[in-house]
Amino acid sequence: MIPVEVYEQTIREFLKPVVRFLDDPAVTEVMINGPNEVYIERSGKLSLTDARFTDEELISAIRNIAQFQGVPIGGVHQILEARLPDGSRIEAILPPAGSGGPHMAIRRFSKEKLTIAKLIEFGALTPDAAEALRTLVECKQNVIVAGGTGSGKTSMLNCLSAFIPAGERVVVIEDARELQMQGAHVVHLEAQKPDHRGVGAVTVRDLFKATLRMRPDRIVVGEIRSGEALELVQAMTSGHGGCMSTVHATYPTDTLSRLETMALMSSVVLPLQALRAQIASAIDIIVQTSRLRDGSRCVTHITEVLGLDGQGNYRIADIFLRMEVPQTGAFSLLPTGYIPAAAETVRAMGFDLPECIYRAASARRDRP
User: Residue 368: pLDDT above 80?
Assistant: First the structure.
């Protein structure tokens, strides 16, 4: 096994053309599209750089990373998923799968923890919406954070974890470790790839099944990608309240459809209507994130799932929605005037939702 210090030194040498970007805390992604084209993302915006590799340098870097991770690369193995010593996530694709040369994307994670206070400062969230989320999380509502690639889903989930009451045992399951949960009693579990003989794999679904026997107060799945969606849904409907996860989806309605599609990837065969009923019962709140045209990230919807209608379709209602402020013309996350069905549960547990929700509901009723 290569010592971490030696690996860190050698990989910096292999990646020398982009080291200056890896050392820049403002850079969140380095995208190497073959040896002669390197883009970076800084403050949410992409820009082309003057960095250049040779094919040999890039392939050597990929092989070095694979060797340290103990995974095969080359031949029939043309895709590499790995991490750098600082936790940055690597996705590399070799030719012939990577047309035009080796391709590599390096997703970097801030060493400074993002907080709800900072999200409010950045304008990604409002104090009222943050207070509503705090109450819903404390009351063990099942929350899905949804959004497109790079929209801030993982960062939002990290921030929401700060609302989990102290003393609760949180088990986190991830395909590759990215979450920085803000709690004291957190157990991190990570899926494992098979070795060079094709054995020893531990999937997210395997970890999920094991987690149910580890006395979790809450289960957090870093990202739902496949059939593990069904296990999460069934856990949510069988007494494991306060579960959280992220999903790639553009709107709240898409989130439920995506969960449905991924649950159908499970080996368990369920009638579609029965599956929909489970999903509608399991998910309480959807927090929708988005990246705006200027590169900034924000929450656009906080939505409650209300079950199914008479035709078997999902019923949802927005509690907060990003919309135009009449007085200023600016956009902000505002209460819609809808009082969530969860308000009764919240009050029964000794909490209450922000007063702005009830004021908006009153103003909505008074409109002609």
Answer: no
